[in-house]
Amino acid sequence: MKPISIFIGYDQRERAATNVLIDSLYQNSKLPLSITPLVTSQLENQGIFKREKDPNQSTEFSFTRFLVPYLMNFEDWALFIDCDMLCKTDICKLWSMKNDKFSLMCVKHQHEPKEEIKFQNEKQTAYPKKNWSSLMLFNCKKCKRLSPDYVNNASGLDLHRFKWLDGDHQIGSIPIEKGWNFLIGVQDREKISNVNLMHWTLGGPWFKEQRLMGSDLAAEWFAARDESFKLWS
Fold first, then answer.
1. Is-above-0.85 flag for pTM?
2. Are 118 and 11 in contact (CB under 8 A)?
């Protein structure tokens, strides 16, 4: 079988988070993975991404994530996840939820942020479907509107609210209680069966100012980091 295609949003400020996430995916997976960090400068060098930085853009991958179907030649399925995550179980369990009747699948959070500033003094922007795009299972053949031209020119809200689809009926739901894309500091852990994929959407412990974000979950991130270092030392 083909490797599972995974694309990770990459931000230079979160290189440590990206490396630990990649290791956690490899260490827990029973199937081969093909993991590609979306490095903005590389996409720019290829002439694929030409968009000016948006004042509401808090990460380098705010918009590059929507290039995944194009990078897949609009074929097969692919998973996009933000870099500020840690995988605690086999990502194949999430991959197995793919359903061909949908164009896209995600965890449909009801996140209405109260804070105005998040990590690294970045502006916190509230909008419908907040955090839905932080984990997306793309059915790439059904996402052909996401051409480089569209991604480079569409408004941020149109992209993140999935206005490029013909309606919300094309968005499949990954059950929130399954603990995929668990929002640390936002969701109630008592309502989650297992925290399978942690997401430090408000800023993670790799930032000095947020060493304890998530308490014991922050400790798990440091343990995963230390284990990764041991494997490669």
1. yes
2. no
DSSP 3-state helix, strand, coil percentages of the chain (rounded to 5)? 35, 15, 50
Give the pair of three-digit tokens for residue 29: 């997976």
What are 11-34's pLDDT values in tens digits? 999 999 999 999 999 999 999 999
Q: How many domains does the chain have?
A: 1
Instruction: Say what the alpha-carbon torsion angle 67, 53, 180, 113 is, to the nearest 10 degrees.
Output: -150
Q: According to DSSP H, which parts of the chain are helical? A: 15-28, 40-45, 68-71, 92-95, 148-153, 156-160, 216-232
What's the domain range around 38? 4-232
For residues 149 and 78, the answer to whether their CB atoms sit within 8 Å is no
Residues in the chain: 233
| Token pair belonging to 152 | 């480079």
- Are the C-beta atoms of 142 and 103 separated by less than 8 Å? yes
